[in-house]
Amino acid sequence: MSALLFARPPRIVVASGYLVGMGNQPLLIDGEWIAASADADFFNASAPATGESLPEQFPVSPWSQLDHLLTSAARDARELAQTSPVQLASFLEAYADAIVTHTDELATLASRESGLPADARFVQVEIPRTLKQLRDAAACARDQNWRQPVIDTTANLRTQLEPLAKPILVMGPNNFPFAYNGIAGGDFAAAIATGHAVIAKAHPAHPGTTQRLAELAHEAATTTGLPSATVQLFYHCSNEDGLRLASDPRLGAIGFTGGEKAGRAIKAAADATGTPAYFEMSGVNPVGILPGALRERPTEIARAFCESSLLGVGQFCTNPGLVLTTDSAGLDRYLERVRATFAEHTSGPMLTAALPRELDDAVQGLLDAGATLVARGPAPSADGFYPRPAVLRVDARTYLADPARFQREMFGPASLLVVARDADELRTVYEHLDASLTGSLYSAADGNDDALYDELVARLAPRVGRLLNDKMPTGVAVSPAMMHGGPFPAGGHPGFTAVGMPASLRRFGALRCYDHVRPHRLPPTLQDRSPFPALWRCIDGTWTLGPVPANDR
Amino acid sequence: MSALLFARPPRIVVASGYLVGMGNQPLLIDGEWIAASADADFFNASAPATGESLPEQFPVSPWSQLDHLLTSAARDARELAQTSPVQLASFLEAYADAIVTHTDELATLASRESGLPADARFVQVEIPRTLKQLRDAAACARDQNWRQPVIDTTANLRTQLEPLAKPILVMGPNNFPFAYNGIAGGDFAAAIATGHAVIAKAHPAHPGTTQRLAELAHEAATTTGLPSATVQLFYHCSNEDGLRLASDPRLGAIGFTGGEKAGRAIKAAADATGTPAYFEMSGVNPVGILPGALRERPTEIARAFCESSLLGVGQFCTNPGLVLTTDSAGLDRYLERVRATFAEHTSGPMLTAALPRELDDAVQGLLDAGATLVARGPAPSADGFYPRPAVLRVDARTYLADPARFQREMFGPASLLVVARDADELRTVYEHLDASLTGSLYSAADGNDDALYDELVARLAPRVGRLLNDKMPTGVAVSPAMMHGGPFPAGGHPGFTAVGMPASLRRFGALRCYDHVRPHRLPPTLQDRSPFPALWRCIDGTWTLGPVPANDR
C-alpha cells in the first residue's frame, strides 16, 4: 500500500525552493504536484484499526503555498465563469468515471485511513453516493436550472444567478472521505458545476484518499481542457494561516463541513471580508417518541434508534444524539431493547485517536451533570481507536436545569435519553432545544398523539432544517427536495442546503440583473430563446421551458 | 403642524417608570404608545429647508425599551408564522389604503423633515412606489410563491421556505422616508408578507413621518386582528445598544439600508450570533462611456448623466458617482453640457446638516488627491442644508495610483469623471473597480464599441448586482426581475436582492424539509393539492400550478 502511495503522484515537480522528500507528499498547485519545502511541518495520518501511524508524510502548508493556490485560482476564475456548461459537465462525468474505474483502490485507501469497511461502507454506499452527486451536478450544469432566470418583458429586466468569478474554498469533514470530501463531495461538485475554481483542503484524517481523488480530478480536468488551477489541493495549515485564507478577499465563497469550533472561527474570518460562507456543523438531532408511539411499538422504535445511532460508528452529523420521551407505557421495553443492543455491540474503530477519548469525556460530563448509564458497549479488546458506545438517561427536570449542557454534541455512537414526567413536561423540554439539522417525531398510528404532535412540532420545526415522521434522521437522500442545513450553528444560513441539487448550487451564485442590455449581449440563458431545452425560466410570472413569447419581444 | 404632531398618538400610556413630556414622543411597543422615561436622552429632527430644529422630541431608547420590544416580538413570532397569508395580505392592503387616505398629510410631514418636494417627490413618486411594494407583498402573501416548494415524490421529501419564527429588525436609510422606511418600505413589506413581527428603527432624519406611518400600520394591524407586537417602532438608541440588539439571539434576521460604516458594525454584531442580515450599502455605480458612444451622442449622455446625478439632490444609493471614459472625440461636448448644467443648477437642501459638510470634505479630498473641478453649483444663498453640486475630473493615471481613494462614495449631487488616455487604459481602470450596486455601459449604436464592451463587461459584471446598457442607474424598478444588491460591501450577500418580489421575501425564509411527514400534517403549500391556485411548485423536476400527479401519490 505504501509503495502504491509513493508511486502515485504522476508529476512531482521540484520547484525552486521546494524539495521532494521520501515521504513528503506533494500538493496540487496550478496543475502541478509540488512538494512542500523541506523546512515545512509535516503530519501523518493513522490507521484507526490498529492505531499505528501511516508512513506517508503530508505537509502543513506555509502561507506562501496558500497564497500560490489563491493566486492561481483567482487568475483562472474569470475563464471558468465563462466556461461552457457542457465542458464543466464533461469534467464532472469524466471524474466520476475515473472514480468508478478506481473504486476498489479508493475504497481500500479510505478504509485504511478511516477504519470503516471498504466494501460495506465505501464500495456499496459512499462511493455510489459520491458518483450520484458528481453526475447530478453535471446534469445541473447541462440544464442550467441553478440560475433560476427571471424575466420581466415589460420592464426589460432579466435576472439570474451567475458565478462569483472567484475561487471557492471547500473544507471537508473527517467522516466522509468521499461524499463530503473537499475535492469530490457535494460542495466540490456544486462549485464546479457553477463554474468555479476549487481550492480543496483535505481532512487530515484521510489525506491519502484525498490525494488519490485529487489525482483523478486533475487528470479529468486536464483531459477536458479546463484551466490548470480548476482543482487544487492542500492538506493542512496553521490555524492562523487558515483564518487568513478564509478572510482573503480573492476568495469568492467557502463551503465547510465539520465541527462547530473550527466552523465558528472560519465563519468569523469569512464574515469580516463579507465572503459568503456555508457551514454544516450538526447538532444533536432530537428524536421525540410520543406516548402513543412508545406504547404502540417500543421495540420497533428502539431497533430503529440503535441502528441509526450505531451506523458508521455513530459518526454522522445526523446521528440521533438526543431522544425525548415520557415516563409511560412502553418505556421499559424500549430501554430493554436498547440495553441489549448496546451491551453486546462490538464497535468498529473511530476515525481519529482523539475521538474515543472525547466521547468518554462527553459521557463522563453527562454523568457528572446527573445523567445515568442505560447501556455501555464492551471495553475494546484491541488496539486502535475503539469507542465504547453509550446510551445515557436523564430526567427532564434535571435536563431543564441546564439544557445547553445536555445538548452538547457527542460525536460517535452515544446518545442521551431525556425522560419527561408527562406530556406537559415534554412540551417544556421542546421549548429548550438548540438548533439541529434534523428533528424526528414518532407518534401513534391511531392518531392518539396528534394533539401533542401539533404542539411539539410548532416548537421543533423552527429549530431544524428537516422534520421527520416515524423515521430516524441518519439517511440524507440526495434529492432536489433535501434540506441538509438548519439554523445557526447547526447550519450557516437557514435558507441554504448543502445537499440537494440544484439548491446547493445556488449557494455559489451571485444574482445579476441585465437592465436594458442589448439582446445580442445577454447571456444565452437569458436570451429570448435559450439554447438549454430543460431550463425552466420564470417569464412574466409563468415558469416555462419555452422562449419569451413573440408578442413580448 | 406641530399641533398635529402632538395630537397624533392615539393612545399615550404612562406606564410605570415612563413619563410623557410635552415634546416627548412615544414609542410603539407591544401595541401601545409608550413614552420614554424622563431621564432618557432625546433628539430633534431638523427642517433641511431652513436648518431649524423641529420642536418634537424623540427618545433615544435605553436597553430596557429595546429588550421590551424584543420580548414582545419574540412572544408573537410563532403565532405570526402560523397566521394565514390572507390575513397578512389584508393587513398590508389596509395599511396601503390608509397611506392613500393620508397621502397629503404624510407628504407634508416628509417634506418638512427631508426638504424634498411634497408633491413632485412624495405624492407623485415615492408614495406610489411604497404602495406598490406593500400591495405586491400582499399579492406575494396571497400566492405564496416566495416559498418555492420542491417536491420529490419518489423520496417522499417536500421542501419549502418557511418563516424564521423570530422577529425581524428593519433599519431604514435617511433618503427614503417611505419606500425604504423601516415601517413602510420594501424590507418591512417582505418581512410581514412572510409572517414575521417587525421591529422598526426610524431613521433620525424623519422620525415624525415614521411615527405617523407607525400609527397607520398599528391601526391596520389592530383592524385586521394581528398580534399586538406585529409592528413596533423605536427611533434611536446608543451605538452600543444598537449592536447589542443586532446580536440578540431572539432576533431572526436584519434588513439594513444605509451607510457602510454603520452597516459594517451591525453586520459584525449579527454575524457573531449567526443571524442572517441583509445590507444595501451602495457604492459609486460606475458609468462607462465608450469611445464610440462619446463620439456619437455626447450631449444626450451628458443630459442623462446630469439628470441622474442631480435627481433627489443626488441622494440615491444608485447615484452615478463615477463616470469612466476616454480622452477622445466628443469629450469636450460632453463636458460642456455637464459644466453648463451644474453651474446653473440651484440645488434643493440635503437631508441633514452633516451631509453638505461631508460632501464638501469629499470634494476637497478628491482635489487633494489630484482631481480638478469640472463644474460646481452656485454657493447656497439661503440657510438650510444646501450643498454645492460638483463634478470633478481626474486622469486615469492619477486614479490608478490609488483607486480606492477615488472610489469613496460622495453622498449627494457629486460625481468624479475618470478620463483614460485610450481603451487600453480604460480596461485597466475597470480592473480596479470596487463593488457597486450597478454598472452602466454606454456604447455606440453602430457596434463600433462592441469588442471593447465585451472586455469591459467581463471585468465589470462580477463587481455589480445590476448591469445597464445606455441607461443611467438611478431608476430601480419594482419588478420581480430587479436585483438591488451586489457584492459586499455594496450589498450584504451577492445572492439576494432588497427590491423585487418574491425574491426579496426569500431573504427572510428558512428552508425546511418534510421527510416522510404524514400527509395531513403537511403545510397547505406542500400538500398534494395546495389551496393556492397561483402557487408554482417544482414537482419531480417540473414547475407546475397543478397538484401532485395522482399516480405519484
Automatic annotation (TrEMBL), chains A, B:
Task: Output the InterPro entries linked to this UniProt entry.
Answer: Ald_DH/histidinol_DH, Ald_DH_C, Ald_DH_N, Aldehyde_DH_dom, Aldehyde_DH_Superfamily
**Residue ranges occupied by any Aldehyde dehydrogenase domain in the UniProt entry:** 36-445
The leader peptide range reads none
Under the heading Pfam families, the entry gives: Aldedh (PF00171)
Highest rank taxon of the organism:
Bacteria
> What's in the keyword line of the UniProt record?
Oxidoreductase
Q: Which PANTHER family does the record associate with it?
A: ALDEHYDE DEHYDROGENASE-RELATED, SUCCINATE-SEMIALDEHYDE DEHYDROGENASE, MITOCHONDRIAL
Q: What is this protein called?
A: Aldehyde dehydrogenase family protein
What's the source species for this entry? Actomonas aquatica
